[in-house]
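URGENT: need a sanity check before tomorrow's submission.

F., can you look over the MFS transporter record below? I want to be sure the sequence and structure line up before it goes out.
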Amino acid sequence: MPDVRLASPRGKWILLTTVLGSSMAMLDSTVVNVALPRIGSDLDASLAALQWTVNAYLVTLAGLILLGGSLGDRYGRRRIFVLGVVWFAAASLLCGLAPGPGVLIVARALQGVGGALLTPGSLSLIQASFHPDDRSRAVGLWSGFGGVGAAVGPFLGGWLVAGPGWRWVFLLNLPLALLCVPVALRHVPESADPGARGRFDVLGAALGALALALLTYALIEAPGGSPAVVVTAVAGLAAAVAFGYVEKHRPDPMLPPDIFASRQFTAVNLVTLCVYAAFGGFFFLTALQLQVVAGYSPPAAGAALLPTTALMLLFSARSGALADRTGPRLPLTVGPLLCAVAMLLMLRVGPDADYLTDVLPALLVMGTGMVTLVAPLTATVLASVDTARAGLASGINNAAARAAGLVAVAALPLLTGMGPEAYRSPTAFDAAFSRAMPICAGALLLGSALAFGLVRRLPPGCRRPECRTHGNVTAPPLEADRRASPRPRGGRSRSSPRP
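Structure tokens as predicted:
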């Protein structure tokens, strides 16, 4: 049985390692948006290239995150976590040295692979290392410190962009990795799941990522009207159908179709797709709107987004407790409505927008809406399936949110008529932004309607989330499988403190 205590020196080292690793991936999911205008200017990139700078990372992360967790269970959670950190750092170095948009996009896709290995691994290490009495508190600290990283990320990214340059947004990951890896190898016990058997669903993961990539390409390149867009769209749909076929007929699929037999689970994932599509589009476009149209500097644009994450960090745990009393239907209905109001309030943000009167009210309403809905959404996901599949259900929900965000980033410029140089023209971008916010609000209204019509009260005694403090705006929190005694690798236990 894992017996590392949180208060022990080794426990603190383990917590530091997991926070550093997950913070690398979380920082990059929030920092890059602020850097996009400077990246575009420096590399002479089109709007499509900027979309791919965001989406290349999300394609591989969303497509492979379930596989990443399985690899850790089979081959050792510490081993896969360290591999993910090293991979992520190497890809970050390539991002920082990229001579042009093409190399940057490829490097971002490689970053997503590293993120898919280290993100689930960081949480699994906590579950496998700490004494059961300390596990919930360790998860809470891990989630809270990660949320602080997400909050600081946009401001830090803006400061780096305005100072040493946008390349340091990626190069910042190198010292974090240099600290994280030796600490992990020295202090974190290795563990694996002795019950993990069968083949890895590599084909399913590859088909899922391929479908996302092809459909994203078709959406981004659609304004050009090339015949290749139609071919790519058809190929993407074919890959999606093949993915469904493979998952249905494999004995050990990455995404078991029968998990969607739960109507509640299916409903809450539909709500997730709607709300996180809106969130993905909102944060992508708002970071550009504040700089291109409102004239904010990168640090000011990054700092402007802090209230949303700060509200989530301060009140997400209380929101979860409130939802325990009221049931999930009410917060999952009201939360998206509040976020939709925030989207419409953002229509006031134009040239020379005043932060206190134009920007801050929208972000406060946005943060309140996200506080209201994220914790109940996670609780409903976990309660909708058997306890043994809660970790899988959380991974699916997390991947669905990221996939929704990348589709929104790909589709919104198409739906709003943004040209390839729109982000260089304040007038053109402001007009497109004014068309995009009502679309995002519409997606949130649909999510609210789905929640009201389909989500039901949770059964008594169901599993509750351990990640009660949450600050990530790009995806719901991950939850790991809870095993009372994860078996260490090798003969004797390696979870005991070293002499």
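My own read: Residues 484-499 have pLDDT under 50 and may be disordered. The chain has three domains: 1-189, 202-253, 258-481. If you see anything odd, call me.
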